[in-house]
TrEMBL record:
SUPFAM superfamilies: L-aspartase-like. Pfam families: FumaraseC_C (PF10415), Lyase_1 (PF00206). This is Aspartate ammonia-lyase. It comes from the Bacteria. It comes from Microbacterium invictum.
Length: 490
């Protein structure tokens, strides 16, 4: 991002030479080189707000720790602290411009943070941006640190912060399904296994099952989040702690726990922790689990709402937009469809994370940027997908009560509820007759003299059919099973 001829600039230098930096930019030469080197994703790290906030939290905690152990002038530490807080509060995020995909194991991201926070601090001190003789991005803001402990720690903190918003949305979606479960609690329908008619259930039970599976995912995501709480601050380059003063690790951990509100802990083996990225793989897998199960729910919603005339037609999804440029009146299940596609993307991102974790070599994994991008994107898309599913679909679902009732009445699956009373053979014969004639199962049972109308009605009540109320003892057979088909089919 070279400045044009009309842009005011400042000159910054590094070991490779000098570059002109826009005078109003808070980033510096290391960020500028990254912009030239990594024009790949065209997506800056600022798209992940919690990653930027986490970077600032790490820098703030480090400044406080360095002050406490006496390796950073208190005035400089205070300036860095105040500048970092502004970023934590949401300011200057537009200055975090390096691409999410980058070489260097996250060094460009770390330097972008160092430069922005330093230049904010310089302004707070009444100094010009780029006055690094007064306050240095590397010697001061990056004191006692390396990209190799800052970046993975910031990613873990950022993911932990981001996960909270995902869990909030997941819980709202779970409650939306529970609300529909209560609304549909008394509506009988035909259950299906292998897409074939099975025994009856209530529509409420079906929606309650959706809510339960989302609740299980909430628990699994919460459990796996703790894998992200082990950090390696103080490890510096490879885990040996070179350039970090004694006491830094303990102090920075204490400050970072206070700043983030997370129950962070220092890895017992900093060398292992610096090279190992298994926690990211486990966490990504739990996101994939949630996404795939959510996609399965969306598949069910699309099936249950298929039609409206030639499909299942059991429920109605809210019409959101015209579904065809050629077929008038067609409305498609676009909200579940978009969530399906989010799930496909999350599954692909999980494979990316897996491959990147495997590709790490010796004391460092150079591919953490694509790991971070993949997981942050998955969380972001899942959160947005859950929101649109809840607001634009689940909340507005209605049931086709008459159609559901008619299907239950003619379904041979209801005879299963009567097998304790009339026996399997008789029930099978009646089921065959019902399929041949299209007659109502209850009517066939009564006509065959196997049960009274009152008893049939009782056993085929919604409470009995759905398993919410226990059945009574068996009723003796009054007619041999072999006589049922010939007599009831007439």
């Amino acid at each position: 991002m070279a400045p044009d001829a009309t842009t005011r600039t400042r000159t910054e230098s590094d070991s490779l030479g000098s570059l002109e930096i826009p005078a109003d930019a808070y980033w510096g030469i290391h960020t500028a080189r990254a912009l030239e080197n990594f024009p790949v994703s065209k997506r800056p790290i600022s798209v992940y707000r919690d990653l930027v906030r986490a970077l600032a939290m790490v820098k703030q905690a480090s400044a406080r720790a360095n002050r406490d152990i006496g390796v950073l002038d208190p005035m400089k530490a205070d300036l860095i602290d105040r500048a970092a807080q502004l970023v934590i509060d949401g300011e200057y995020h537009d200055q975090f411009i390096v691409g999410v995909i980058q070489g260097g194991a996250g060094t460009s991201t770390n330097m972008n943070a160092n430069e922005v926070i330093t230049n904010i601090a310089l302004e707070l001190a009444g100094r010009q941006k780029g006055d690094y003789a007064f306050l240095s991005p590397i010697d001061d803001t990056n004191r006692s640190q390396s990209t190799n402990d800052v970046y993975p720690t910031a990613v873990k903190v950022g993911l932990s912060l981001d996960l909270k918003t995902l869990l909030d949305e997941l819980d709202l979606l779970r409650h939306a399904f529970l609300a529909k479960a209560r609304e549909f609690h008394d509506i009988l329908k035909v259950g299906r296994t292998q897409l074939q008619d099975a025994v009856p259930m209530t529509l409420g039970q079906e929606f309650h099952g959706f809510a339960t599976t989302l609740g299980e995912d909430y628990n699994r995501l919460t459990e796996n989040a703790y894998l992200l709480y082990e950090i390696n601050m103080g490890a510096t380059a490879i885990g040996t702690g070179i350039t970090a003063s004694p006491g830094y690790s303990t102090s920075v951990l204490s400050h970072l726990r206070a700043i983030t509100g997370l129950d962070l802990e220092l890895a017992t083996d900093l060398v292992e922790s610096t090279s190992d990225t298994g926690a990211f793989m486990s966490f990504s897998a739990s996101l994939k689990r949630n996404a795939i199960k959510l996609s399965k729910i969306c598949n069910d919603l699309r099936l249950l709402s298929s039609g409206p005339q030639a499909g299942f037609g059991e429920i109605n999804l809210p019409p959101r937009q015209a579904g065809s440029s050629i077929m008038p009146g067609k409305v498609n299940p676009v909200i579940p469809e978009v969530v399906n596609q989010v799930a496909f993307a999350v599954a692909g991102a999980d494979l990316t994370v897996t491959m990147a974790v495997e590709a790490g070599q010796l004391q460092l994994n150079a591919f953490e940027p694509v790991i971070a991008h993949s997981i942050f994107q998955s969380i972001t898309w899942m959160r947005r997908g859950m929101h649109t599913l809840r607001v634009n679909c689940i909340d507005g679902i209605t049931a086709n009560r008459e159609r559901l009732g008619a299907m239950v009445g003619t379904s041979v699956g209801v005879v299963t509820a009567l097998t304790p009373f009339i026996g399997y053979a008789a029930a099978a014969a009646l089921a065959k007759t019902a399929l041949l004639t299209g007659h109502n199962i209850a009517d066939l049972v009564v006509e065959a003299g196997l049960m009274s109308r009152e008893e049939v009605t009782k056993q085929l009540s919604p409470a009995r059919l759905s398993g919410l109320e226990a059945t009574t003892a068996a009723i003796p057979l009054v007619m041999p099973a072999e006589n049922l088909v010939s007599e009831t089919a007439d």
